[in-house]
Amino acid sequence: MQLKKGSHIHFIGICGTAMASLAGILKNMGYVVTGSDENVYPPMSTQLNHIGIEIKIGYKSENLAPKPDLVVVGNVITKKNPEAIALLASDIPYKSLPDLIGSLVIGDRDSYVVSGTHGKTTTTSLLAWMAEKCHLNPGFLIGGIPRNFSNSFRVPKGNVFVIEGDEYDTAFFAKVPKFIFYKPKFVILTSIEFDHADIYKDLDAVKVAFKMLLEKIPNDGVLVANEDDENIRELVKEAYPFKVVTYGEKKGNYKLGAVKQVPEYSEFEVIYNGKVIDRVKVTLFGTYNLLNALACYAVAQERGWQLRRVHEAMASFEGVKRRQEVLGQPDAVWIIEDFAHHPTAVRLTVTAIQKRFPNRKVFSVFEPRSASSRRKVFEDDYIEAFSTSHEVVLSDPFNQSNIDEKERLSSDRIVRALNSRKVKAQKFSGADAIVDYLGKEAKPKDVILIMSNGAFDGIYQKLIKRLENRT
Fold first, then answer.
1. How far apart are the first and last CA of the chain?
2. End of a domain among 71, 92, 113?
3. pTM
């Protein structure tokens, strides 16, 4: 369909990270944008308000008046949603977010898709910043807000578009992975694990989704794949017509060499086909994040980007909001926020923070909130993920009313298992109870790592205020 500048585009579920980003792109392209949502919280709500996009609270048929020219339906929206019901009963045309991104935003540009179970947002942000520093004027759409840019999106000015490629399904009317719409030409594949238990039956189903992505890469494209990952190795065994470049800590064309890490930054050697070719400084922490940086370095090398500018980009990268983001140091207690919710991400994040702050106590605070983390399928994995923590503080899982009782994760069971392993762990009902506990227990120079993929009932500012007021 052809949309003229000034056409009205309405988003159902606008506060999702990708939805809010696309809304911003379309507004900057000259379209009139509105949206509705019932889960409105920062940073996306703040971003939308800042760029002047109206958010209608709640889903209802009245949100479709005045009649929009196109409706974008988020993947959290079911066909039983009252606004979706009204949409289907009307003659208003509608599309999924990925479909519209591919057709209207990416078009014929070179599409750089960062995919994998873990590390997508940080890797996409760094790759976009590299392209920016290399004067490629990239457009981008990222599932978080990079601190080097003011927003999670930008309209492309050049021939490069960098996008976070999610394997989650597209919409209730298109049960396929989102990333297959993104016209992938240059792809980073960081990891493959079982996730999204609400839509994928098992690991094999997840592998099928990623195979669909690789089958979309053209002959002149490039795949940069993590060879340390067993599931990726299995996937790339197959002969593909495009170039495959690998990276990793133990395996790969590009390997992570000697690492130096201090609280302010990390440095690592780049080994290419067995020979040290470079040393890179980056403001990222933890082996998994350095591998993400190495993947971006490999893309830059394969594309012939100017090495001096690549170094400048990595050294000046400021990270992403909600990814190991230091929120403050009230009463000399470090408060760090992270989006980790998959057990592997939780384990790696806890390890990275404890390694970054040696000889300090780290409280690992976690809210099981994502569709998968609220389910029992990952219960044993969380026990392992927290097994080396200094102290674990869990909340009750976020709303489990739509999950069968037998399938629900239990924070109490995780706490009991950790205590039996001599790991100090406690469960609290709600953010206020956690704030009260940490306000009494955290000592100056301690670190509080808070992990959630949602608002966590405003725990971040509540905790900062509590610690500030005790001084």
1. 60
2. 92
3. 0.77
